Amino acid sequence: MSDGSADENLPVIWLLGKTGAGKSSLVHQLTGLPDAVIGNGFSPCTRTATHFDFPQGAPLMRFLDTRGLGEAHYDPTEDLAKAEEAAHLLIVVAKVDDPVQGEVADALAKVRRGVKAHVVLVHSGGDLIPDTQERARAMVRMQAVFAKALGAKVPEVEANLKTGEGMDALRDIIAAKLPELAEVLADAEGRRWLAHRELVLWYAGTAAGADTLPIVGAVGAPAAQVAMLTSLALKYGVEWDWKRRAEFAAALGLGAAAGYGASYGVRQLAKLVPVVGQTAGAAASGLMSFAATVALGRAAAVYLHRVSSGEQVEADEIKRKYSDALRRRQS
Q: What does the mean pLDDT of the chain come to?
């Protein structure tokens, strides 16, 4: 299936639907990329299947689109089998005002016994049926078609692919089924984080390397974290002064750093205590230092985004981002 342009281990979302159902628009809404980029970004990987990697240049996931359903002299069996093997999540996109979904339902039936991907039905084009009750009936009929093909009721979402209404519900489903994509397909804050993720990983690697050396880690890792926070603030256009440091420290909480503070020193604690979350023994572990640095960077990214966007900083959100990131890196 792959043309070698992306990591074979990328999470894959397979888009299944008729031409014009709104698959490209759905990718646009999920990624926030311009329509023109989406339209020109799909690359062929079989005769009728194409893929779109996101983010471009350093992809973390792949969208797969199997085209040609219903075309004369085309048997989709082979392409469907390849897509089924590659996919981690299957999103069926169907326009509410288009009840003729035979080809899509047949394709779904072909893969239902061996499909390993979770399946989600996205009802698009609901704005074309203004009457609420009529639209609801149309979605019930659509659900019945695909439930019969799959052999089970399909989780469903109604989404306006022009305005983005309903996309939060779809993101929640994707996050529940593929947690590793929760941030990749997130809101503006999540996408902004992606742009600076490599910077954080670089500093995390530096911190981890310092922690593998006796004594050096006690200074090197915290120094790397201080430098990371300063660099991130610059990227977000936020002045990293005493006020911002104190506000971020208060939001994140300093209690967990108490054990580490004894070896790090009061002087460094006054600079922000950039090692929040590390225990006294963590300095000896490069792995833990890497994880804590990434978590610190993730929490700082949220804080800096809220500040630079003029939004309210919520301490619970900062702490949750830190804990979630630390947990993922340690698992």
A: 79
Domain CATH number, residue 153: 3.40.50.300
- Residue 141 in this model has a pLDDT that exceeds 60: yes
Shared domain check, 225 and 160: no
User: What is the 3-state secondary structure of the chain?
Assistant: CCCCCCCCCCCEEEEECCCCCCHHHHHHHHHCCCHHHHHHHCEECCCCEEEEEECCCCCCEEEEEECCCCCCCCCCHHHHHHHHHHCCEEEEEEECCCCCCHHHHHHHHHHCCCCCCEEEEEEECHHHCCCHHHHHHHHHHHHHHHHHHHCCCCCEEECCCCCCCCHHHHHHHHHHHCHHHCCCCCCHHHHHHHHHHHHHHHHHHHHHHHHCCCCHHHHHHHHHHHHHHHHHHHHHCCCCCHHHHHHHHHHHCCHHHHHHHHHHCHHHHCCCCCCCCCCCCHHHCHHHHHHHHHHHHHHHHHHHHHHHCCCCCCHHHHHHHHHHHHHHHHC
Name the pairing type of β-strands 118-124 and 89-95.
parallel
pLDDT tens, residue by residue, 269-314? 333 344 443 433 444 456 777 888 898 999 999 999 999 999 999 9
Question: Which residue type sits at 196?
Answer: H
- For the entire predicted model, the pTM comes to 0.62
Question: Do residues 206 and 175 share a domain?
Answer: no
Residue 292 is assigned to a structural domain of this protein: yes
* Average pLDDT, integer, range 248-256: 74
Specify whether the CB–CB gap between 162 and 26 falls below 8 A. Answer: no
Q: Is residue 6 part of a domain?
A: no
251: number of CA atoms within 13 Å, CB side? 26
Residue where one domain finishes, among candidates 122, 157, 181? 181
63 found inside a domain: yes
Domain limits at 222?
188-330
Residue 166's identity, in one-letter code, is G
- Highest mean predicted confidence (pLDDT) among 106-110, 191-195, 219-223: 106-110
Residue 236 sits in the same domain as residue 291: yes
> Are both 72 and 155 inside the same structural domain?
yes
